[in-house]
Amino acid sequence: MxxxxxLFSFFSEIxxxxxxxxxxxxxxxxxxxxxxxxxxxxxNNIQEFSExxxxxxxxxxxxxxxxxxxxxxxxxxxxxxxxxxxxxxLRTSKINDQLRKKILTLLNTINExxxxxxxxxxxxxxxxxxxxxxxxxxxxYDDFEQGKxxxxxxxxxxxxxxxxxxxxxxxxxxxxxxxxxxxxxxxYQREVAVLAxxxxxxxxxxxxxTDKPPFCIITEWMSGGSLFHAxxxxxxxxxxxxxxxxxxxx
Length: 250
Prior knowledge:
About 50% of the residues lie in helices and about 15% in strands.
């Protein structure tokens, strides 16, 4: 019963911190607290909890490592996204002078914090937009040769390219933004995570992704074109073949 109460107390504190920083309410908490406030709250709670469970074994205690580099990495990435969001808000919104002053003060504090981390030689992985679980997929853009454009959308253009190391054909999806603001950041992370996780014979194989401009996602080259273009090409598939394809996809 005592252990259950400790667990309940710990998770109650974590939930309280998270509730203060939901997408609907995070701005108030962020404006009124220093950049490292949430990080320190989480670390303090987890440190306190880990000390309480230490008697149950070192393996369990060590699994809650508050000094792990990932904590700082995530905090720096979050602060960069917060800085981009507030900077955009100042450019596009009409706000009163008092709020503008508070936001500018926050931005200056965040920039100083990030600069200190860079001066302190925080590892470069900390400012990578790629989640730590997928950083094995990071590649150098210079290792690829960009060819002709084969398609484009609202946020990216797709090119046929060549992987110089293996001479294999690849598809290079080059995003049309020089920096990652909040929305682009989340979209880019999500797409990389999906492609890195969803390894399947019927899906395009992920070759790699860049973590600095130009931001690109590189996959294997599909020489026959996409299913979308095949289905919409007159006379390419008859109704029976389209039905079979639809059933297979479903």
